[in-house]
Amino acid sequence: MNRRTVFITGGASGIGLGIAEAMMKQGHHVIIADINEQAAKEAVIKLAHLEGSASAVAVDVCDAQQVAALPEVLGKHTVDVLINNAGIQHVSRIEDFPADKWQQLINIMLVGPALLTQAFLPAMREQNYGRIINVGSIHSLVASPYKSAYVAAKHGLLGFSKTIALETGDCDITINTLCPAYVKTPLVEQQVAAQAKENNLTEEEVITKIMLEPMPKKQFVSVEELADTASFLMSPSARNITGQTMVLDGGWTAR
């Protein structure tokens, strides 16, 4: 595969950092974008021993002006692959869900990907190559209680991807959404604690009775699985896979 420039939001930790590591091992240049500039720089240092290269950029994906300025900020680096990964979670019944927090989740996980696509799509069109990979969730397809904002945002990504797929059918640009069941990351570990409190369960009970219970495979999805799927979507063999929902759910939605 050609060496690509891969822009990953929320790239300083969790799934984003794991995908960044995998992409660098393949020799790509990775731009680690995060709202926490120091964390992004530390991630670049952490991955410096790998074959590819990396740089860091601070960006608030909810800030339209910051996002629109990114192509100029990045200078010589034209983004070939955009991975919309930034995300947060808040667990609460809707009656108690703070309105500003609900809006924040939508802004980060739905409005942000739209703004970033808007920013990088012109250059992708110009070079007739681009891959937009949204990190969705099993909650793009199903729901769980107390996660109304997260579920709404992740469902919205699927509609957004299908629309952009139709708008980019005239060139070698694709957009798809990875939808994994639970991936063991710091964000999920926080969810375990929050779910335990909300449901009056132990953390082990949350894992076995809530998170993994619907999965016939009964195991967390690995970051490596997501990275390998993203790599395939970047390849010429995936040029006709667009507007699709790539489900890595251990059989969850087969029920």
From TrEMBL:
Record Pfam families: adh_short_C2
Gene Ontology molecular functions: 3-hydroxybutyrate dehydrogenase activity
Biological process terms from the Gene Ontology for this record are: monocarboxylic acid metabolic process
UniProt xrefs under InterPro entries = 3-OHbutyrate_DH, NAD(P)-bd_dom_sf, Sc_DH/Rdtase_CS, SDR, SDR_fam
Q: Which NCBIfam families match?
A: PHB_DH (TIGR01963), PRK12429.1 (NF009093)
What PANTHER family does the record point to? 3-OXOACYL-(ACYL-CARRIER-PROTEIN) REDUCTASE, 3-OXOACYL-[ACYL-CARRIER-PROTEIN] REDUCTASE FABG
| Recorded family membership | Belongs to the short-chain dehydrogenases/reductases (SDR) family.
Question: Mind telling me what this protein is named?
Answer: 3-hydroxybutyrate dehydrogenase
